[in-house]
Amino acid sequence: MMPTSETPRLELNFRFVEDAGDASPAKIPRAIYGIIKAMLSRADKAIVAKNFEEAVVHLSRAIEAGEDYLSPHALAKIYGRRSLAYLQAGKPEAALNDTNQCLRLDPRFTNRGKEELKECLPGAACESANDQEVLHHDACELPDPDLTFVSGTEFKFEDRTNECSLVGCKRESISSASFFQERSFRPKMQESKLGSSLFNELVHACISGDVQTAEEMITKSRDLLFERDELEWNILHVACFYGNSELVDFILQQAGSKVLSEKVAGGGSALHIASENNNLQVVKRLLEEGGESLLFEEDEMNQTALHVASRVGNCEIAEHFLTRAGRELLIVQDAKNRTAMHYAAARGDEGLCRSFIGCGGSSILEMKDYKGRTCLHVAAQFGRTALLEFLVHAGQGSGIRKRTDRGSNLLHVAAVHGHVDTLNKVLELGSREMLFERNADEWTPLHAAAYNGRDGAVSYLCQVGGKKLLFEPTAEGGTALHLACAANQLVVAETLITFGHKQLLEKRDGEGWSVLQVARAHKNRRIEAFLTNMQVVLHK
User: Fold this and answer.
1) pTM, full prediction
2) Where does the record place its ANK repeats (predicted)?
3) Which of 79, 116, 469, 538 has a Cα-to-Cα distance from 125 of 20 to 30 A?
4) Residue finishing a domain among 388, 423, 441
5) Is the CB of residue 165 less than 8 Å from the CB of residue 140?
6) Domain region containing 247
């Protein structure tokens, strides 16, 4: 087996059901939708606090609520997440059961994690938290469409690293999809069976745009203004979501700040909802009523309305917030220490980033999230090459050599996600020394790309780094080919051998292991067969 220190670090990021691939939220009853969303949100918060047992409880409730409504693929992802939480909680048997259930629901997920988990069962118990980190996100790719941003539920992402696969990806940065999906306040109103029948009639009047009927109902029964359903939505939240500015104005005239102060499950305010759904007129009316203090209200993930607007790309609203609150709002960090700038960088929104820098100064480029990532690291992660160049120049080159908390430079981050254009631009803006810089695991960018199966990045790095980079050892003396063989990355192994030939095949790590022995130990049969054939050919 490969040394323990080469075991990839576990990345736990839980996403909402809207991002569950082929889930169909529109078919989920509103009450069930709300429960699943709330439970996944709470699980995410528990993970941040390293309270894995609490995360298991919330994920179990999400599974129970969604069992009859979610697609097998969506449900499999939640089982996969609970498996990871069980593992961190020191319950490998339960983790293995969830892994089996995940694979049963969706065989597209890798089966290798199940075999690795067995090593953690009683009789081969883990002695440390690091030893338990054997379920990881695989580099195997399920096809995702190109990046398409739609407010609410229909987010799709260009990054092809599947977050919920069970094995394999050593990486510094979070999954691209999860970056955007930590908060969403989108309700499913069409089949509402919550609250009183009168409240439901009011909700449907709002949905259909029948302002006159809604106003008449509120006039007859002012209690409707303060009635809330199981998701803690009142009629103002509904009107803000649908952008019904006329009804919003009427509600505020009738109830004012009393109704404005109420929040939905998940902590979002009416301003959060309007910001997410790009209703600038409604946003202005809410701020007129509630004042600037509304801008600093936070949801359960400590996100302000500016975070929300930046995350979903509602630039006009975000820029309006800046004119009202300026830098003080811009530097607010959420539960994961991310500023609105981090989310704008993830989207590649140069215009909004330019506005943020103009308001907050270049010092905002230095702000780091909970993993030590600046907005430049985020731009590199998402392959936002043009934006990255702009940000480097905006910071007068100071950000190009910044490292994350685990020592990854911009090349490491771009290599992990396979963004060749970004790698090229970073080297153009930085220096060749970055090719040989090592992260906390003593990996170069080539090591990171090889382990994660990024063949294009591997090929590019081998070309620019030459044999010196190709033969750079890990802390255990292995090469990038050793890592590719351990991670079952056949295409990468073929590419590396193209550059390294016989010398690379014969290279041994610090424990005397050849690449063939590594592939055999990890039961990677295809690579084992390929290496055996290569040795026969080269020795003829």
Assistant:
1) 0.69
2) 266-298, 371-403
3) 79
4) 441
5) yes
6) 195-228+232-331
